[in-house]
Design a protein that fits this description.
Order of helices and strands: EEEHEEHHEHEEEHHHEEH
Helix content: 25-40%
Number of strands: 11
CATH topology: Rossmann fold
Number of domains: 1
Strand order of the largest sheet: 6-5-7-10-11
Shape: globular
Structural class: alpha/beta
Radius of gyration: 18 Å
Number of helices: 8
Strand content: 15-25%
Length: 279
Amino acid sequence: MSHLNINKDCPIIFNESHSNRTVFFKDTDSKELYLENKEKFGPSWYYYETPIEYNYNSWGYRTKEFEELSDDYILVMGCSFTEGVGLYQQDMWATKLGKELGKDVFNLGMGATGPDFMMYNTILLHNFLLKTKKLPSMVVNQWSFKHRTSYMFNQGQNKLNVELFSATYPTELYPKNSKFYGEWYFKSYLEDGGEKIKNSNFSIMLCNNLWKSLNIPVFNWTWGEDFDMEGSEFFNNNVELLSLDDDTKITGRDLSHNGHLSQDLVVNTILKKYRYGIS
């Protein structure tokens, strides 16, 4: 059964397995890898001594409770790069951006998710925020790999289960990805590409234009070639996407995600665009 679902008790996609939890290792940032690298790199390693805490709110996201947010806050979305896998909370780009601007941060980044997941959460959150009258003052979207997608499964229990699909997900973690629906995903989503083109355009168009219609500034960025608006010649989307290249050669604790120094690159790029219109 999926740990992600849509239900009447949570206004966005609910991360059931992480709700109200604190863990010290997460996905690629495993305890085994940490101990191995601790011995390999020694006391000079940035992550040698101080543990990383992954603190998740009641909705299952690595951020504070919505009710605890100040009225002046930034909404950020993305995948594990925004969730901060392998990073201390204070080193995450979203945390640093909030500090620079003197704004609170509501971080809905979630590892292994793709563009359509962000679109679904944007629709759901927007519906919730219109009722609460507590809109963000700024939105920043980090766009993840376009080959990722998600499907909804109705298995009763008054909720829709959300399953994540990608060409790179291991079978033991995402059984539906290869066991039941993998053939359709690989042939239709990846080989034909029509659904991928749809998602890589509709997702960013909606997540950009919805907030702009409320006069909220939106910034869209991605790492290198992780994401692009494939087939954009079919659409008149007029969305600016900032593509960033990380040349720091510094990784997070898991040795796979971008490290603490690269977070400053993201922050500086967004600040230049926000303050001066320079990308």
